[in-house]
Amino acid sequence: MTNLPPPQTPFPASLPNTPNNPNPQYSINKTPNVHTIKIGSWEIETIKKPILNGKEIDVAEKSLNLPLPEMTFGNNSLRLSYSPSSSSSTTTTTSTSLNAPSGQDQVQLKFDSIEALGGVATGEGWEERVGGGVKVSMAEKWSSKSSSNSFSGDSPIPSKPVKPHDWTFSTCYSGSVSGPSSFRPSPTHSLPLSLLARQDPILDRILFYDDVPLFEDELHDNGESILNVRIRVMPHSFFILSRLFLRVDNVLFRIHDVRLYHAFGSGEIVKEVSGMEVSYEQVKRHLEKPSDLSPLTDPNWVYQKMLSLPSGPSQGGRPWPGLGKRVEVLRLPKSDLEGIKDGLEGVKI
Fold it and tell me: What family classification does the UniProt entry report for this protein (predicted)?
């Protein structure tokens, strides 16, 4: 029998190497559509604009080969840029230009509406090829939403969707990264949940917060599919939660969460990706008042109930690929000075 290695116990993400500074230097700039914070080596930007107009919708649908959700915030995004040499960039405008990164050391993270919709399954036979198809009596009709008149009583319903696609928009999008670093699987990292739950009025005060909607669709009044991303920046770290919340009435619930955590000075970003699927009836049984269905529209309430229920495919066919959980880590590049310092520390005299 092959001897298996002893199981590894996950440990929380690293904390800063330096003592927590309850008053870090940072700057915030706000315009009607763009909010930005610069703190240490980071520049974090949220962009929030109205839903796409008709011309923008046409361009996006042709690019994605996908009918867009009813409310697509195609110009919205969350962007984070890390430049190892720009830790002093929050002091003055002049220092920002002097410390501009070379480009090859800069790491950029992004959560973007159009990128997210690029992860929606499309094409003939996507249910068998990708998995996660939701079968309800009207699914094929909803999938063929090519025009506002497609469902009038006098118009024939096509036997096949005009553009076959996952009409629930169950994307498994977890953001994108560019630069010299990338996320790698880690069996030993975990999020510092106790730290994130702490509410110290000084150490954990919120320096910057935003909630960015990416898309929403009511599935022709038969549920909802919502994707948004939130970020909060504290003196010691930042935390991001991107959540896809899907409710198909009388069928199922799905939640796909992406959590990112970085402790300033730690040199790493931890990402946890998790997906759950539970039948509608299982969640509905937890209502305090069966006649009041309003909690079923609250993603946080549904999430808490789903945590206590077994998650898995609630319908036949190939399962949704978003199920399960994984943890990944991205190692941030070091500045030239940090690299020299590490090299000197390794020299033995």
Answer: Belongs to the TIP41 family.
